[in-house]
């Protein structure tokens, strides 16, 4: 191939890639650069003057008790939701995959929470968890737990929100695991049976679980990101209460940016949140990828 032809093909390739690069620049890189720039200023929404403060926002951030509490609450929420989202989604997928006639019904039933608007459903949850009128509280009283206010008890509110988060995300993870289960060749189970894996647990540990490695890695990373972004249920159900027990990173970020108009400070908080998500995603990918079997 001659040099002029190589240059012509390179220019043609660059021309085809230019629209995609322009979109990435406009939608990802430019907003990220603006976010980093705002995070080192004292900019307040609507202010005419902006002053460069360097890393003062970050220093104030980690000295802020509200931020520390929101960070702790967010990690507790993720620690509760993540295992349930991954293993709950896998368990439901295994049960649904084994069905024959009623499989379509269960797929739709478990996936419905994913399609529902969480703000609207949070209103339903607010009624269901009402301390005097809600059916959940009535059930707890019938079981002998007495009057329990799940959304206004500081020791129970965050766990209650985590259960609602699980209710919504398990259906989506179920669909991903069902796709992974359907892609496993049946002859692998026959070969495993010849090797002595005749029981269900043996087939799961020797065939199903290793072959679901790529799906499990994807589900783990996406579930982590989803859990870190909890916001809707906090706003509708608790507004960070009681006593700050459900204040999460995204909710505090919203208050700082859109209630108190401390845009520079909120931008620094966003950078920290993005850094946590990137680091956790890379760590999870490296740890899980070592045990993943790619067919």
Automatic annotation (TrEMBL):
<keyword id="KW-0813">Transport</keyword>
<feature type="transmembrane region" description="Helical">
    <location>
        <begin position="75"/>
        <end position="96"/>
    </location>
</feature>
<protein>
    <submittedName>
        <fullName>Multiple sugar transport system permease protein</fullName>
    </submittedName>
</protein>
<dbReference type="Pfam" id="PF00528">
    <property type="entry name" value="BPD_transp_1"/>
</dbReference>
<feature type="domain" description="ABC transmembrane type-1">
    <location>
        <begin position="71"/>
        <end position="284"/>
    </location>
</feature>
<keyword id="KW-1003">Cell membrane</keyword>
<dbReference type="InterPro" id="IPR035906">
    <property type="entry name" value="MetI-like_sf"/>
</dbReference>
<keyword id="KW-0762">Sugar transport</keyword>
<keyword id="KW-0472">Membrane</keyword>
<dbReference type="InterPro" id="IPR051393">
    <property type="entry name" value="ABC_transporter_permease"/>
</dbReference>
<feature type="transmembrane region" description="Helical">
    <location>
        <begin position="156"/>
        <end position="184"/>
    </location>
</feature>
<feature type="transmembrane region" description="Helical">
    <location>
        <begin position="204"/>
        <end position="228"/>
    </location>
</feature>
<comment type="similarity">
    <text>Belongs to the binding-protein-dependent transport system permease family.</text>
</comment>
<keyword id="KW-1133">Transmembrane helix</keyword>
<dbReference type="InterPro" id="IPR000515">
    <property type="entry name" value="MetI-like"/>
</dbReference>
<feature type="transmembrane region" description="Helical">
    <location>
        <begin position="264"/>
        <end position="283"/>
    </location>
</feature>
<feature type="transmembrane region" description="Helical">
    <location>
        <begin position="108"/>
        <end position="128"/>
    </location>
</feature>
<feature type="transmembrane region" description="Helical">
    <location>
        <begin position="12"/>
        <end position="38"/>
    </location>
</feature>
<keyword id="KW-0812">Transmembrane</keyword>
<dbReference type="GO" id="GO:0005886">
    <property type="term" value="C:plasma membrane"/>
</dbReference>
<dbReference type="GO" id="GO:0055085">
    <property type="term" value="P:transmembrane transport"/>
</dbReference>
């Amino acid at each position: 191939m001659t040099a002029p032809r190589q240059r012509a093909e390179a220019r043609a390739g660059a021309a085809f890639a230019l629209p995609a690069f322009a979109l990435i620049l406009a939608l990802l890189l430019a907003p990220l650069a603006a976010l980093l720039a705002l995070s080192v200023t004292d900019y307040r929404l609507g202010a005419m003057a902006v002053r460069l403060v360097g890393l003062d926002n970050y220093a104030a951030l980690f000295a802020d008790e509200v931020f520390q509490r929101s960070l702790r609450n967010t990690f507790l929420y993720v620690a509760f939701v993540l295992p349930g989202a991954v293993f709950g989604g896998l368990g439901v997928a295994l049960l649904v995959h084994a069905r024959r006639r009623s499989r379509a019904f269960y797929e739709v039933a478990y996936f419905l929470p994913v399609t529902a608007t969480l703000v609207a459903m949070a209103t339903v949850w607010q009624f269901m968890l009402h301390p005097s009128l809600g059916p959940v509280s009535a059930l707890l009283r019938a079981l002998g737990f007495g009057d329990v206010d799940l959304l206004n008890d500081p020791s129970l509110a965050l766990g209650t929100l985590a259960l609602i988060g699980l209710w919504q995300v398990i259906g989506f993870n179920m669909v991903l695991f069902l796709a992974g289960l359907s892609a496993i060749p049946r002859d692998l189970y026959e070969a495993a049976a010849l090797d002595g894996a005749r029981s269900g647990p043996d087939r799961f540990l020797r065939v199903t679980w290793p072959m679901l490695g790529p799906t499990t890695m994807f589900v783990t990373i996406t579930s982590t990101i989803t859990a870190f972004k909890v916001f809707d249920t906090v706003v509708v159900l608790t507004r960070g209460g009681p006593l700050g027990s459900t204040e999460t990173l995204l909710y505090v970020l919203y208050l700082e940016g859109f209630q108190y108009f401390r845009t520079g400070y909120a931008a620094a908080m966003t950078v920290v949140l993005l850094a946590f998500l990137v680091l956790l995603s890379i760590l999870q990918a490296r740890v899980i990828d070592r045990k993943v079997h790619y067919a």
